Amino acid sequence: MLRNALPAQLANALSLLVTAAGNTAANRRYTFGIRGRPGAGRHQARGLLAFGAGLLLTAAALAGLHAADPRPGRGLEVMVLVGASLLATITRFGLYRNWVFRGGCHRSSRFRNSGSYACPGQPGSDKKGSQP
User: Fold this and answer.
1) Which of 22, 42, 61, 125 is an S-S bond match for 84, by CB 3.0 to 4.6 Å?
2) Residues 6+ apart with CB under 8 A from 66
3) Do residues 33 and 78 both lie within one domain?
4) Is the pLDDT of residue 131 over 50?
5) How many H helices and E strands in the chain?
């Protein structure tokens, strides 16, 4: 929708920025099971850096397309952005899993089947780092 009024790079950047904070918050809560305020600011700051990585990938794909064809059709732009966005999503998730939410209180694969959380040192945690 933004592309009708803005150049491709600006429309791409704004659409990604609009979704970045919500995406980080949703991943924090639903994917990684982190609730509460502790670490939220750090997670959002790191999430913005992960957003930057995604923006870099999609912007590079658009730049490459426009270098190859200075006036590509909107359909081709969309196809290139869908492919780049898939790669950006995989990259962002890797960053979320291994850096943004690392070390936080989250559902760990070790505890996933028991429904417990890996929250060492948190109130209600036992010495093994799980809580009911």
Assistant:
1) 61
2) 8, 72
3) yes
4) no
5) 3, 0
